[in-house]
Amino acid sequence: MTFRFTQRADCANTAKLRSCVLASLLTVALLLTSSCNHQPAAADADAARSLAFIGNEASRTLSVVDLGTLRIASTVPLRDTPHGLFANSQRGELYILSSLAGTLTILNAATLAVEGTVRTGASPQFIALSGDGGTAYVVNAGSNNVSVIDLGSRKVRATVAVGQHPEFAQLTPDGATLIVSNRNSNTLTLIATQADIGATSAATPKVLDEIAVGSQPGPVVIRPDGQQAFVANAGDGTVSAVDLLARGVIAHIEVGGGPSYMVMKPDGGELFVSNTGAESISIINTYADEVSQSLIAGRNPQRVITNAAGLLLFYTTAESDAVSFVSIANRQRLPTVALGTRPGAMAVSPGGRYLLVLGPASNDLAVIDPTVPALVTKIPLGQSPYDIAVMRVPIVR
């Protein structure tokens, strides 16, 4: 970078010249600082303790990316093909589901040592973690049940039968009720977790109720006050609003074709639904149980997430090689960031500095600065990266 200094007329005397030179040097320093604002902060203690874990299906490995240096910290070989990844920051553990093997692998997130493997039901799809981090509820699509795993003893404490082909689950904020969506039976199963008795108690979680919802229910989101749940019904283009106290459906909210992904603002007031079979993202007022606005999103919108503050919405589309950004406050579309390949799973780094986007076909991780927005770098991964989880972990020296 070349900087040219021009002496102005009011800098003729020595004092003024010195002042002008100092001012020019300050300008140069500011420009250099600005031009480097996308460089990784290796000295930042928080960033150095932030890791991204990526499961690579085809190579059967786990890529570990240091988000302080934006480099691969380690590649961990896995016995079973990884699918879903779930971080437990309270225990400092990463859980790796293998739907093919029917297992949950437990990884120490700091040492990267595999510390155990637990046999689940058939084709595990999702994990809901208890608030204290001591219990994992594993949803098994192939065996139509939920495995309740004590993470301290690493043993299955109970198995609870649910509906047909369950895929997702969420715990109410108080941890007392697990809500499971059953895709093939078009129902939600409500399970009493017995959390008030204690996770190590011999008391077995029990089914409270089964509620009919829309066709092919998938992701479940619960309002922070715990009074209402929402489930996306891919088969009929609706989102069912469920009263958890009365255990009944309040409304079937029409959104668009094939609602598949949902995210709620941290305050619980709005729910964003990507309609894969349409070209829109529906915004639902979660207290009025109605669509307040629809955003034109491009063809076949896919994953949708927000930053931790709930100020920015990030989403991808099946027909695009880019990530789109929306200001939630004013619904303003921000510039898209082209990735050169169809994007996959996304995550926001701890602290919110980066948006992380997998490239399943290009076998890389795109690191994006969402404040610009702009692509910072791409990091090579293993083959067919499928899922990502992020966590702050202690530094092991």
Strand content: over 45%
Major sheet description: 4 strands, antiparallel
Question: What's the N-to-C terminus distance?
Answer: 39 Å
Q: Unreliable segments (pLDDT under 50, ≥5 consecutive)? A: 1-38, 41-48, 197-201
Structural class: mainly beta
Order of the strands making up the biggest sheet: 3-2-1-32
E-strand count: 32
What can you tell me about this protein's structure?
The chain has 397 residues and is mainly beta. It is 7% helix and 49% strand. The protein has 2 helices and 32 strands. The model is unreliable at 1-38, 41-48 and 197-201 (pLDDT under 50).
Brief rundown of the structure:
The protein is mainly β. 7% of the residues lie in helices and 49% in strands.
Kindly list the characteristics that best describe this protein.
397 residues; mainly beta; four-stranded antiparallel β-sheet; 2 helices; 7% helix; 49% strand
What's the topology here?
Blueprint: H1 14-35, H2 45-48, E1 50-56, E2 61-66, E3 71-77, E4 85-88, E5 93-98, E6 103-108, E7 114-119, E8 124-129, E9 135-140, E10 145-150, E11 155-161, E12 166-171, E13 177-182, E14 187-192, E15 206-212, E16 217-222, E17 228-233, E18 238-243, E19 248-254, E20 259-264, E21 270-275, E22 280-285, E23 290-296, E24 301-306, E25 312-317, E26 322-327, E27 332-338, E28 346-348, E29 355-359, E30 364-369, E31 374-380, E32 385-392
Antiparallel strand pairs: 1-2, 1-32, 2-3, 4-5, 5-6, 6-7, 8-9, 9-10, 10-11, 12-13, 13-14, 14-15, 16-17, 17-18, 18-19, 20-21, 21-22, 22-23, 24-25, 25-26, 26-27, 28-29, 29-30, 30-31
